[in-house]
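Supplementary Methods S3. Input chains for the assembly prediction are listed below.
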Amino acid sequence: NAGVTQTPKFQVLKTGQSMTLQCAQDMNHNSMYWYRQDPGMGLRLIYYSASEGTTDKGEVPNGYNVSRLNKREFSLRLESAAPSQTSVYFCASTVGRVQSYGYTFGSGTRLTVV
Amino acid sequence: SQQGEEDPQALSIQEGENATMNCSYKTSINNLQWYRQNSGRGLVHLILIRSNEREKHSGRLRVTLDTSKKSSSLLITASRAADTASYFCATDARDDKIIFGKGTRLHILP
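Predicted structure tokens for the full assembly:
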């Protein structure tokens, strides 16, 4: 099925553990994004990749790293998880300028850090 | 940075009724977008309206844009149980990004 695929769907980590959230899209989109969604805070941009080979910080990048592995895949890594990173994480992609085309979102990863 | 702000925060209506939610923003925009998020799912892009458009339709959805008032409305006609979701507006921000509001939670009562 065409779209944005995120894995895993659920994850529980202990404080200090590391993990990588995976995202892949099969729509040949150029730009990919990672957001986190918290109650009362809306969606906040963590990192984005405007094109293959480039990555840039968003609004809340601290504690995260990203890798644009190829045009299809964009991963988000938590090196040392903290309870404040408990959230729902969404990957999104767009074919061109997001202001002109809008996002296609994945179904999310619900992460709990204990 | 500017942000779209949805109103009301929550809305409950009977199935079959129309639902209207609003979005206000602070500075001039080129485009405004509406998204839907069903519980436990990702956001789905519903409609994009450009600053030179006043109204746009997609199925049971009608979006209006009033640039003089810096506001937009989303009307869902003949609501169904499946319309129960959160609805977000997203407005242009600098550096070619968009910013989401905090959403309106719509609950359709049987």
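The longest strand of chain A covers residues 31-38. The first helix of chain A runs from residue 98 to 101.
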